[in-house]
Specification:
mainly alpha, 15 helices
Length: 263
Amino acid sequence: MVRGSEWVKCAALRRGAAVTEASEGLSRVGRVPSSPARTTTLRNAVGLGVAVGLYGTAFGAAAASVGLSALQALTLSLLMFTGASQFALIGVLGAGGSALAALGSAWLLGTRNTVYGVRLVPLLSPKGALRRMATAHWVIDETTALAVAASDRGLARLAFLAGGAALFTLWNVTTFAGALGAAALGPTARAALDAVVPAAFLGLLWPRLRPAFPEAARQRLVALGGAGVALALTPVLPPGVQVISAVLAVGLAGRPRASEVTE
């Protein structure tokens, strides 16, 4: 009887050790996102995708106003998929500029996505050339903001993919619809759509500026610095360039800590 109880105790100890070892191994791999966290991430990503994706209506209408057909506007959205560059391109064309000048303006604004890509590589870690190319096509302002705002890598990938899918789908659908219905979209409706993107970004930025957010003081410093740079350069630079120049404010954050580099 004594031997039997000792055997049961030993088996229990071995099971406890195995569970502890498995738990430690899981913690080394990384946290598994809880269901509420995944639900919140999906809701935010899809919500932002729907809100900003509707802005494609304004682009479709603007593209039609400069002489592009609905199919041409849709092709531009499918292949370029970066709103600021698309608006810059049709803006130059609408002002009578050459195709080369339009492409140059679009390319200049698109360079900011390179900066986003550098930040997203350690978060998303895409494997293989094809996957990297597909991921790069979805690297825009909104997907970057969603991924960076996530609390861990798993949620960052989920936010990027869910937001990117919602944005890409709706942006192209509404581009085509906007180009077809350009005549029915009045100035009031266009003004309302113009407010969607800044409002969405303010909604993403605001929680990071609150005192409860980690490094909130540094976040506020960078945000104010970026706004100051953009406002100071607005009178002297073409539209959109001052937004790219605002990236200089990142230097106000100082050097990243060791934990941020290895994250």
